[in-house]
Specification:
The chain is of the alpha/beta class. It has two domains: 90 residues, ATPase, nucleotide binding domain (Nucleotidyltransferase, domain 5); 168 residues, ATPase, nucleotide binding domain (Nucleotidyltransferase, domain 5, 2-Layer Sandwich), CATH 3.30.420.40. Helix content is 48%, strand content 20%. The chain is built from 13 helices and ten strands. The strands form two sheets. A five-stranded mixed beta sheet has the order 3-2-1-4-5. A hairpin with a 3-residue loop joins strand 6 and strand 7. Helix 3 packs across helix 13, helix 5 packs across helix 10 and helix 9 crosses helix 10.
Length: 298
């Protein structure tokens, strides 16, 4: 039975899934992070391990193609070592793309359209008639509006404003301080300047909780996130001159799991482009490897 393997290598885990030629899942393997910029040697070890696990119940000679979507691939200066390691390990034709491209192919089934991702960071990716364009994805210093990091930072900035004002702490500020184990906002700098983007984004659930409890400021942050993500998506639309009935897919915990963000995102896009089709269900990015491999093999 001929099959294809799709690999999704991200910042925390690598997933390899084998699909038969009808796109049905037949085997899988999992390992640690596959982001090449974190530690290229360890990432490659994890990627190869995930593929090897996937191959265990299958006949290796029946694998037609491996398509890998790897975080950080675009930032690797010399990709020869990565390609040599994969060639030596498997002797199977393969292609490597960025993880955003494989996610796009998975959700849009290899067709044209736009994918907007919002997790710790945010980016919008469009593909139209073979042309690929991005908006956002600038990272937390230059942008990432609407991301988990951005949402959390709006709350932290508000905390500093409360401290600089009359020192009256809101319920949201008190909850954040409790989670941090701090007595007052003056201690906040220690956390902000020594933490990762993911550490900061981990405060989003507190903001969501407060929004549900009726906190207008928290709810407004979430709506603003949806607005910013819509703006980024429409920027890609304009770059690629899409028709009005384009399909837009979403991915990432912020857009898929927070109704206030998702609703604001959809409403802001529909104000400008009422005929849009949305794909809201979550699909494994490895399926994008299947759709892309079919194109590369033909």
């Amino acid at each position: 039975m001929s099959y294809i393997i799709g690999v999704d290598g991200g910042g925390t885990k690598t997933e390899a899934v084998a699909y038969n030629l009808n796109g049905e899942k037949i085997s899988e393997g999992k390992a640690g992070f596959g982001n090449l910029l974190l530690d290229e040697k360890q990432a490659m070890h994890n990627i190869i391990s995930a593929i090897e696990q996937c191959l265990v119940p299958l006949k290796k000679e029946e694998c037609q193609y491996i398509c890998l979507g790897l975080a950080g691939y675009g930032g690797v200066k010399n990709t020869k070592g990565i390609k040599d390691a994969l060639s030596e390990a498997f002797h199977i034709p393969f292609t490597i793309v960025n993880d955003g491209i494989i996610a796009h192919a998975a959700l849009l089934k290899g067709k044209d359209g736009i994918l907007t991702i919002s997790g710790t960071g945010s980016v919008s990716i469009g593909i139209h008639n073979g042309i690929e364009k991005l908006a956002g994805g600038w990272g937390h210093i230059l942008g990432d509006e609407g991301s988990g990091y951005w949402i959390a930072m709006q709350a932290f900035i508000k905390m500093t404003q409360e401290e600089d004002g009359e020192g009256n702490y809101s319920d949201l500020t008190k909850l954040v301080l409790t989670k941090l184990g701090y007595q007052n906002v003056l201690e906040l700098k220690t956390f902000i300047y020594s933490s990762t983007k993911a550490d900061i984004a981990s405060f989003v659930p507190i903001i969501v909780q407060q929004a549900k409890a009726g906190d207008d400021f928290a709810e407004n942050i979430l709506k603003q996130a949806g607005y910013h993500l819509a703006k980024t998506t429409l920027a890609v639309w304009k770059k690629l001159n899409f028709d009005n009935d384009v399909t837009i897919a979403i991915k990432g915990g912020i857009l898929t799991n927070i109704p206030s963000v998702q609703t604001a995102f959809i409403e802001n896009i529909k104000q400008e482009k009422p005929k849009v089709q949305f794909i809201l269900e979550d699909v494994s990015s490895t399926l994008g490897g299947y759709y892309l491999a079919l194109k590369y093999m033909s």
